[in-house]
Write a structure and sequence with these properties.
- The N and C termini lie far apart (about 150 Å).
- This protein has 3 domains: about 220 residues, Rossmann fold (3-Layer(aba) Sandwich), CATH 3.40.50; about 70 residues, Immunoglobulin-like (Sandwich); about 60 residues, no CATH class.
- By secondary structure, it is α+β, with helices and mostly antiparallel strands.
């Protein structure tokens, strides 16, 4: 814990003269307790709990820790030589809340060569170097590009291979072993670092990137749940994690001051079911408060809803793009002449008159009827005259010769 505590409690360099070390506010306040002292009262008021190389937890302490995370607390688990894999794996299963606090089962301890005796080139399964990380995760953004430091020099000598289950892998070594993973647990989150947080199993604490990496992890976990959410656009559904151990009624205040309510009932199955808030048509800040404490000084959590990225694009849309956005049920009319806009709008609103079409059809029928009758009469007269001519010729043709 030496490097962990030092990184998070180092005093600022610009401390004024005469100001004692105790008077200068440390970036992070850290309290240490033994695993046997874990109770609900002890955990209350803390945003983040770290389990650093803890061998096991008593059943009562494990249950209190589950309740703490389920109700919005956050947990960072780091491993070490004191960890009992069998005991940790008993934290996982359908008999535990949300399938267990541990993001994945511990399979085996993987060891690499010492820094003084590195492994041969090509033995990538044992090198222990950081090979991949989730660049889109808020806690890790910037490390792949070197903005917050490089992780290329980190060498992990020992780490546990873990079966992630439903947890999200965030960092992996060159052999594909997960080094950092995250799991949602009710209203809170759990992160597991599969190596030691100090230099017992790696040279990570000696690397320049250790301090910003640790700060980003701790800051991310210490934030309220909704503040860790990704970019939200107007009209999107916001998920508010729900606790299964207490009844809660949430009151969401929109940017214009109006309020909406969400309620989550305790679940008997222990499966995480987040509340959803759908009335996000307004851009701005939304404040979430307990309905029982609407006038509290600070909201329980806040989240921002932004206008879609496409709203700020000034590039004209092509006709094909407009038709695609409108869909087949909304025909689009393109006008080159602005003066025809009024006529096009009226036509779109009123449509075509059915009676006009029927009147035109009746007029055409009325005009065509005399012509058709005249043609038919002429044909009848011609047929009648032809028949008379044939009848007059027949007697002359059959008259006997003198």
């Amino acid at each position: 814990m030496f490097f962990f505590r030092l990184a998070l409690t180092v005093q600022p360099e610009n401390q004024s003269e005469g100001e004692s070390a105790g008077e200068a506010a440390a970036p992070v306040l850290i309290d240490s307790i033994l695993p046997g002292e874990v109770t609900g009262q002890k955990l209350e008021g803390y945003r983040l709990v770290l389990l650093a190389n803890v061998s096991d937890l008593a059943p009562a302490a494990l249950e209190e820790l589950e309740k703490y995370v389920d109700r919005g607390g956050n947990l960072l688990i780091t491993l070490g030589d004191r960890v009992n894999p069998g005991s940790y794996n008993r934290w996982v299963g359908s008999h535990r809340l949300h399938e267990g606090l541990l993001p994945g089962k511990l399979l085996r301890l993987v060891e690499s060569a010492d820094e003084e005796n590195p492994v041969l080139e090509g033995d990538s399964n044992q090198t222990g170097s950081i090979a991949a990380l989730n660049e889109k995760h808020p806690a890790l953004a910037g490390f792949s590009e070197g903005k917050l430091g490089t992780l290329a020099g980190v060498r992990i000598r020992k780490r546990y291979e873990v079966h992630p289950g439903a947890a999200e892998p965030l960092m992996q070594d060159t052999g594909g072993i997960i080094l950092l993973m995250e799991k949602t647990f009710g209203q809170g989150r759990v992160m597991l670092f599969t190596s030691a947080i100090d230099r017992d199993w790696s040279n990570f604490p000696l690397q320049p990137a250790y301090l910003p990496w640790l700060y980003r992890i701790v800051s991310y976990l210490a934030q309220p749940g909704s503040q860790r959410a990704n970019f939200l656009g107007t009209g999107q559904i916001v998920k508010l994690p729900a606790s299964v151990t207490e009844l809660q009624t949430l009151q969401i205040f929109k940017p214009d001051g109006s309020a909406g309510y969400q309620q989550a009932d305790p679940l008997e199955t222990g499966v995480k079911t987040p509340d959803t808030f759908t009335d996000t048509d307004q851009a701005g800040l939304y404040a979430v408060r307990w309905a029982a404490e609407p006038d509290a000084a600070q909201p329980q959590m806040m989240f921002a809803v932004n206008l879609p990225h496409r709203e700020s694009q000034l590039r004209p849309l092509l006709p094909e793009e407009v038709k695609s956005l409108a869909g087949p049920d909304n025909p689009v009319i393109f006008m080159e002449d602005p003066e025809s806009a009024r006529e096009a709008v009226l036509q779109a609103r009123q449509g075509y008159g059915v009676w006009d079409l029927l009147l035109w059809a009746a007029l055409l029928v009325a005009l065509a009827e005399p012509l058709l009758a005249s043609q038919l009469s002429k044909r009848r007269i011609l047929r009648a005259a032809d028949a008379l001519n044939r009848r007059d010729l027949l007697p002359a043709a059959n008259q006997p010769a003198a």
